[in-house]
Design a protein that fits this description.
Layout (H helix, E strand, L loop, with lengths): L3 H12 L4 H8 L3 H8 L7 H10 L4 H11 L4 E5 L3 H14 L4 E5 L2 H10 L2 E7 L1 E2 L2 E2 H11 L4 E6 L5 H6 L4 E4 L4 H8 L14
Parallel strand pairs: 1-2, 1-3, 3-6, 6-7
Antiparallel strand pairs: 4-5
Helix pairs in contact: 1-5, 2-3, 7-8
Length: 199
């Protein structure tokens, strides 16, 4: 992780005349949390970034872009057991997120092994994966990395209720389109690539 977000936050806080403790009080977090953000150890989530922008009176996109670029080239995965749909979806994701490292998997276990070796920022999961379940895969991926954004992709809108009961942050009905992906990227729990979306 580079220090773009941490440097940006420290600069904006200093320009606002606030100490770490004072900023922490306004955000209802400990001074140590602010210190971790400014040391590049952690990144706040999207909701907190919005709160920070309000306190420091700065456009939220400035902080979102700094956070996205601080994470480097994010790892994006998509898991679908239908090869044609997988290939079409990979092309869409590549169009929308050209700066990302994007991998497709037919088998859930391969996706799990990849997630154990790489910090996955976004996982797009089919809900029906042959004999496997995308809902169960979601939980496994979140056990590996709780900051993974999981978005379901399915041909069956009836799955929306069970999907929302999981810890996913989005739901899309097939076929995948650039517009659907861009809409989901704006709603992610942990924002990624806001400054580098393909048009």
């Amino acid at each position: 992780m580079n220090n773009l977000f941490s440097e940006t936050l420290k600069k904006l806080r200093t320009e606002s005349g606030l100490s770490q403790a004072e900023l922490g009080k306004q955000l209802f977090v400990n001074q140590s949390t602010i210190a971790r953000w400014e040391n590049g150890i952690r990144l706040p989530d999207a909701e907190m970034i919005t709160n920070i922008s309000g306190v420091l009176d700065v456009d939220v996109s400035t902080l979102l872009l700094a956070a996205a670029r601080s994470e480097g080239s994010p790892h994006i995965i998509i898991v679908d057991d239908e090869k044609v749909i997988l290939n079409d979806s990979l092309a869409v994701l590549d169009e929308v997120m050209p700066a990302a490292t994007i991998r497709g998997f037919i088998w859930p276990q391969e996706a799990i092994e990849y997630a154990r070796m790489n910090q996955v920022a976004l996982a797009v999961l089919d809900i029906e994966l042959g004999t496997a379940s995308g809902l169960e895969l979601c939980q496994t991926l979140l056990d590996i990395n709780p900051r993974t954004n999981v978005v379901y992709l399915t041909a069956f809108p009836d799955y929306s209720l069970p999907a929302w009961e999981s810890k996913a942050c989005g739901f899309m009905v097939k076929p995948l389109t650039p517009e659907k992906v861009r809409m989901q990227l704006e709603k992610l729990r942990y924002p990624i690539l806001f400054g580098d979306l393909g048009r």
